[in-house]
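Reply to dn_fold:

You asked what the input looked like. This is it:
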Amino acid sequence: MSQIEANWKLLVEPGPGRGAAGDGEFTSGALVPGGGENRRLGKEFPGLLEAVRLADGMGLELLELGDRAGAEERMREAGKLSFAALGPAHPLTLRLLNNLGCCVFRPRDAAKARTVFWDVWERRDGVLGGMHRDTLRSAMNLGCAKSACQDHGEAEKLLAPVLEEWSRSLGPLHRDTLSATENLGLCFIVSGDHQRGLGLIAQARDLFERTCGSGSRECVGASRSLAFAYLTAGEPDAAREIQLRADRTEDLGILMGEPDLWPDEVPN
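and this is what came back:
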């Protein structure tokens, strides 16, 4: 059992000596989403935010391990609590919805994730503004989902401004900038613009290797994206060589789990 999971169980599972909710502590029964009175939980029970964040941390840990079903369960659990206690526009609720979208996202079945990402993007845009970093991350997620749903024009309209803004504000070597570069490249690949797509993905892979290391999750994920790009562009030999190199790196035990060919944005 991980430390995050141990802390979560300590917080929410009733046990000997645990006080009732009215005593300033809470049990799992006190956290069942319901009427508007639950919106007061954040103030009445200070441990609520910690419990929700721990559930979120557990979900991210499971996602990292490749257990998407377990991660989705934890994200939904935490999201319901945050929604009921803090409201739909609270930054923590929006973070959990974003991470839930990452759990349910599949390249070949992206409609469900697209709905989640759209909701988060609209809410963040209204609360934080369009140029806030969290809003831009949501725009990138939504762009990836739209591209996977074959809505390439709308995807590019979302992804290109994110890359432009992050290149300006975060710099060309920042992890978020490189993720945006890779995702825009994938958008071009699946829309048929192979030359631009290969150039961007190769650039992201090389810079991830330089800044994060060849065995990092980011570099291996970008290598898999590059293999997918070459395969889509009709160059299977190049794709196979890149894919085998990425697989050998992962076999060294540097990474845990297996990322999809289409890279999910690292949840924020």
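Confidence is low (pLDDT under 50) at residues 14-42, 250-268.
Hope that clears it up.
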